[in-house]
Write a structure and sequence with these properties.
alpha/beta; D-Maltodextrin-Binding Protein, domain 2; 10-stranded mixed beta sheet; 12 helices
Length: 308
């Protein structure tokens, strides 16, 4: 039995939707369904009534929900306890961060924090959104820094996790300055002359943000895919080399915009705002972590109460 199966089951019990829970857990729906079936096979009972819609739990599923919550809480508390007895070489806080925030937002935020709080020894662990969220859920880090948008929330149990809103990040399309004045590069483009497009990979959070922008735009965009990558830094490098238009968080291209190398493309209909949030496990009571958290809360950061 795997711990993530229990977390999957509780997500499904809370949402009542396989598709919504799969999105919250950052896996495909078929993979999520297989994990629920694996948990049922391990228990030897059906937890989900698949003869009805919308999704609901069986009597066994309802009976298992409470013990599953208790088991998860006990396991995480036990891990926090033994980690507290582990010899720590330094007081560095372990911060899990998606790749884009690690390059774009984190260095500047940490520099500003040092001016009001003092030195903050940190060890940064960068990964994709799924992996860094799992690091926090499994007790592998002290803090999680991640994006949040109501259309694609990162699910964390507010009873267990506490969150603060640190900033609002603006996502919009950008072009090299030398291309910005050319008619063929103007959004929305045309069917006859689509705009060369640099896109995030399908399993990235920013891909979801860009898809949301394109879906909500009042006019369809005519884009011709030229390049795809999971890394915003790689996308920016291709943008600077003139290979196409790319949607990027403002912090990722702040220096290039200031130097005049890159300009924003299109009007506000091609953009959106997403939050940058910081999370901690309430069971983690490291003194240096609590001191930092109290400082951030006192600075007026908004308490999100966990992610939903």
């Amino acid at each position: 039995m795997e711990l993530k199966w229990l977390e999957d089951f509780l997500s499904l019990a809370d949402s009542g939707s396989f598709s919504r829970s799969a999105e919250q857990r950052h896996v495909s729906q078929p993979a999520f369904s297989r994990r629920i079936r694996a948990l049922e096979a391990w228990l030897g009972v059906a937890l989900v009534d698949r003869s009805t819609f919308p999704t609901r739990l069986t009597e066994a599923g309802e009976a298992f929900k409470g013990p599953a919550v208790d088991l998860l809480n006990r396991l995480h508390a036990a891990r926090a306890l033994v980690r507290g007895h582990q010899a720590i070489a330094s007081d560095a806080l372990v911060v899990a961060v998606p790749h884009t925030l690690a390059f774009a937002f984190f260095p500047g935020w940490l520099a500003r924090l040092k001016t009001t709080f003092g030195e903050v020894p940190t060890r940064l662990v960068a990964g994709n959104v799924h992996d860094v969220v799992m690091m926090l859920a499994e007790g592998g880090c002290d803090l999680l820094l991640c994006y949040h948008h109501p259309a694609h929330p990162v699910w964390l149990d507010p009873a267990r996790f506490e969150g603060l809103r640190l900033a609002v990040e603006h996502v919009r399309p950008y072009l090299p300055r030398r291309l910005a004045g050319l008619a063929r590069w103007q959004l929305p483009g045309s069917a006859a002359a689509p705009i060369p497009f640099l896109r995030y990979g399908p399993n990235t959070y920013l891909r979801r943000m860009v898809d949301t922008i394109l879906d909500r735009a009042p006019r369809p965009a005519h884009l011709a895919l030229q390049y795809e990558t999971d890394m915003a830094e790689s996308l920016k490098a291709m943008l600077l080399a003139g290979h196409g238009l790319a949607f990027l968080p403002a912090s990722a291209v702040a220096r290039e915009v200031e130097r005049g190398e890159v300009v924003a493309a299109g009007s506000s209909e091609w953009s959106l705002d997403m939050e940058v949030r910081l999370y901690r496990d309430r069971a983690n009571t490291r003194p240096e972590l609590l001191r930092l958290w109290q400082h951030l809360a006192a600075q007026g950061q908004q308490d999100t109460g966990g992610a939903r």
